Amino acid sequence: MKQQIFTIESQTQLAPDVFRLLLTAPEKPQAVPGQFVNIALPGRYLRRPISVCDVRENTLCLIYKRIGRGTGDLSRMQPKDKLDVLTGLGNGYDLTKSGDNPLLIGGGAGIPPLYLLARYLLAEGKKVQVVLGFNTASEIFYEKEFKDLGCSVTLAAADGSAGVKGFVTDALPDTYSYFYACGPLPMLKAVCRTAQTSGQLSLEERMGCGFGACMGCSIQTAGGYRRVCKDGPVFEKEELRWED
């Protein structure tokens, strides 16, 4: 974990309530695929955790969804504004288990951390397939960015307005060596039940401190209670215990 002061370089709206934030710092940010940052916002007691979409040199790319007051404040911030950010938080994805043909499955606001993961996997010579799920076509973002990396991309829209009609589980390919997923809990639960292989899932959970001190994000796993912020947010499929 490292505390850094970042400067906002740009903020762009990608879809309804979805924003891309580009931040710069004097030193390269700490981040590997699947990790997150925790941002302090003026007048807000708790920091806001946001997954890392990409990191290059001294630039950090975050994509977040405007949901409550904190992210609403963040969406109104302007270039040259400063942010106090904790970087290098959580345990990321384990790339050693990917095999030659990994599948990346993302839903809505869970899509961003898969971009950095795709970059790393492609750099290792993997053939990366990506399935992105949305409610409707107007919510789609980052399809082109994944394709530009060299990924094979399939879209799923619940209302049938783009790609495969239905959910990400309706758009899974026939063959893949391993899967990585990030998205809302109902989606992750369905993926675990449908996927043909083992895999890793990044969980979304309310966090207090973001580094394991408050125990507020604890979940039940096969190995007992684990903290999403410290022991996760990435867990293996076999670790998770879903409530029916």
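That was protein one. Protein two is written in the same sequence-then-structure order:
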Amino acid sequence: MKSLPCIENTVNAALEELGIAHERIKISPEFADTAVFCEKYGYPTDHCGNAIVVASKKEPKQFCTCIVKGSNRLDVNKTVRRLMEVRKASFATPEETITLTGMMIGGVTPFALPPEIPIFADHTILGLQYIILGSGNRESKLKIHPEELKKIPKK
């Protein structure tokens, strides 16, 4: 599946504007999901990050994006629900993710999200030498130093 129109330009502009030092890793789209990517390209899952869009269950819908190590599970029912200050939350559907971000699951990146979407990151990521995140599409990944995440404006 090809990336959505213009998202690559949007992500590139955001990376440049924020001054994010990064290495782009070209991949085949069928290997974009974290576990498959790690197996195919030989990266450890604890150095790959999942940027996951989460949605509240009740209207008006609220969204956030959470970044966790590929080796960890996202605790939507307790931690994320509490961070969002909602009674119930779940993973956003693929359709919600695309509509909200312009990005497909497996390619979501925190660097070009709409400004109203808060980002929550697992603090253990900061202790890594590098983290690999989605690049906005399923055709590449971004390898960055975790400190680069601090350049994202706080919501």
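The domain at 7-151 is CATH 3.90.960.10 (YbaK protein). Keep this in mind for the problem set.
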